[in-house]
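Hi R.,

Here are the chain sequences for the assembly we discussed:
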Amino acid sequence: MTAAEIAGASPLDGIDAAIAGRLIAAALGSGGDYADLYFEHRSGADYVLEDGRVRTVGRGVTLGLGVRVLRGDATGYAYTEELSEDRMLEAARTAAQIASSGAAPGAVPIRPVALPNRYPVAEPSLGRAGADKVALLRRADAAARAADPRIVRVEASLAEEQREVLVVTSDGHYARDRQPMIRFGVSAVAEEKSDGGVAQRQGGRSGGAGRFGMEFFDRPGQSPEDHGREAARLAIGMLHAVEAPAGPMEVVLGPGESGILLHEAVGHGLEADFNRKRTSNYTDQVGKPVASPLVTVIDDGTIESARGTINVDDEGNAGERNVLIENGTLVGYMQDRLSAKHFGVKPSGNGRRQSFRHEPLPRMTNTFMAAGSDAPEDIIKSVKRGVYAKRFAGGQVNISNGDFVFALTESYLIEDGKLTAPLKGTNLIGNGPDVLRKVTMLGSDFELSQGTWTCGKDGQSVPVGIGTPTMKIAEITVGGTKTR
Amino acid sequence: MIGPMIDAMSVKPAAVPAGRLPDPKACQRIAEEMLGRALDAGADGAEVLVRDGSELEVKVRLGEPELVKQAGSRALGLRVIKDQRVAVTYTSDLSSAGLTRLARDSVELAALAEPDPEAALPAREEMARAVDDLDLWDESVLSLDVAEGIRRARAGEAAALKLDKRVTNSDGAVFGRTVGASAFATSAGFSGSVRGTHVSFAVEPICDDADGKKRNGVYWSAGRFAAALGDAEEIGLEAARRTIAKVGARKIPTGAAPVVFSPEAGRGLLGQLAGVVSGGAVWRKSTYLASREGTLIASPLVEVVDDPLIRRGPGSRPYDGEGLQSRPNVLVSEGKLRGFLCDVYAARKLGRRSTGSATRSIGGGPHVGVSNLILRPGKTPAAELERLDRALYVTDLMGFGFNPVTGDYSQGAGGFWIERGERAFPVSEITVSANFDALWKSVDALGDDLDTRSSVQCPTFRVSEMMIAGS
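And here is the predicted structure of the full complex:
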């Protein structure tokens, strides 16, 4: 890939309004209600350093068009990787077959959608010399090893991507966006020989991501050294972790990454498709109390350069800030076009897809809980015996019944208001509405996690952001191995 | 209601247009030509993977088509080695100019990597000599078109909705079909291609439960051959039975108990075991089993094998991701760890031979991966495993909760509480936990009901004690 290709010329440049108009006409040729075209040109590279050596470098490009036709609640979808007009028309006609009769809506003039620039990148990282990125990996490796002699293995990786999209809709939207992403991660293994000579090992990971160029690494906490040291700290800290307790108890969730609780406990349940189909436990709950009055939850695709931020969603609608729960009351769902039509509301800028091979779905962007007024240290002090959870590996929810689980990778026992022993990895399991009603204290220390969070739904992955202040849950089940 | 009813019969593209079938020989030609380009561009060695496939997905919900998705897709992945430096690249642009450029760019890219003496292609004598026909292609799959998919999905969902009035909603029924070809060529001295078909069908009904909760359940069929789809109505009925059985699920008190894993749930545990018997995890010091070869790591009842040569197997492959002849590998027998799965790189790192266990995708280089991973069934009828005074029967696991470095394991679970040999009531919102070392050593019974629908295959099995966290 040449610098010019990164900065300027693109295979999507040849897609003008005339071609798009012909494809839309073909897509609606069988009588669909609505059609859209989703062109995607994605370039990526990745670098992996293992055991002090840059083991592989990778690079790839994908290019394609997805055509979607809606007829009532039904979707016809086809895609092609060849952007010849013949193949594109074939994809449009294939998608069109979802509709079998009826008059197509008349042609609507295609107009560019004015978009903000929420991820201004002076220079795309892909254009920078590979050696610069290798140097970052080396710095992380050195920092992790220097942190402690017990660090016996380090792996560092950098992945960068530029995703260029062009969305054209039959109601006249023409939106083009460039979405950069950079992701950095370090994992470390610590080893300690006990008196008997048996090696105890533990692993730790740290990573960060966002819609940045190389300036990402100048941000607070995002230098390669920061991630190297943090991975080492977690691995070393876990060497002497004790068994986690089992059973319900008070739990304090630290700021930032604990947003994973929101993502699972309410986020997915508030995606409009599940509510349109009445398969979510939040169906028909708009206007009703669904959480403690302390709880305000927002999905915000407009936070500058955050991982889940989008200038435009994958259906041609601008990214937005949407309040989902306000002071405990459910305000609304995250909408894509299909669901918005069903509910008679405007799409909320949440129609997202993994790639041109996938149909859009209502998805989260950056989902977080607004700050409260408690001092974080007071929250910890208020707990006689419980668990403080700080870092997490991931979570999962069952939309239908609201049960969710999330995995703790750094947590501590709280005894008499103080953090004591580090705990081995464990899970918290709860029920969304139940747990949100048990939020009894909320910190003033809101933090947006800069982690490498990726959300999966129906086999599609999209990058997202999460965030929270420190919060106390009066009772949630801790999935440890030790009974009290 | 918007628009007319959609008539399935009016949606009629031929399933796979004649002349557009994925063609293994055409893929192999592209792969071989690309190999030539890579060597011409200056690579010391190279490997090329080409995939060509078509997918069809049909989803019906409440009797109406909700999604019909169909497309074909081709892509190429390349690994080049120059001066012991490795680059991995991919593209969906298979034009001659595009591929020539990719070859040149990839060799340039490799200069960014650092020399790695272990990063070499396999030795010529290790390569597969022939490509076995493992019966992975079913011509009759081609005739399963959109209309047939809709018919089956409607029938399966309708059966589920009709069974019991407690089934009040549906997340739909999905029919899927993929038809694909794949070719691999390597300068180590192998070029081959395979083709395969795969079909799947799932029904997911929903019941209403107390407090606005809903209960979803799913049942599915899958396999290489159309016959594996089974009867759509039977699948729907089983899905409904499983969903209804979850109504009223509740927590159970925290404490230790025997745990029986259904084949579906057990598959998750077996999949985690695959990760810790990987040679890649051993040299990365990322498995608690690193120094345990030849020792007891499981109950003597446990036998685990990775077998890529099963005819019609979902994960079968005649050659591995580096072009080596595939072979079955016994991982655990009589409870002892018999060896680690290795690709060429892991084998060199550990001073041993590859076990022919490399997998690779278009976008990534080779790495250790399982084919058909099987926990061998026992002779006990599965139902007898539940004949306990008190135990937990687990049907669902959720979340992330396995630390391969230490073996610590904890996941969210759902299923049934067993009292006096009977399923007394459904259970949800609990976790099950144990260290993997103790968990596998505590397997005290294996059912005779091996589930062969997917590439990770388990029977029902029982662990004599795990910690359950609940109320």
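The radius of gyration of chain A is 24 Å. Residues 246-479 of chain A form one domain.

Let me know if anything looks off.

Best,
T.
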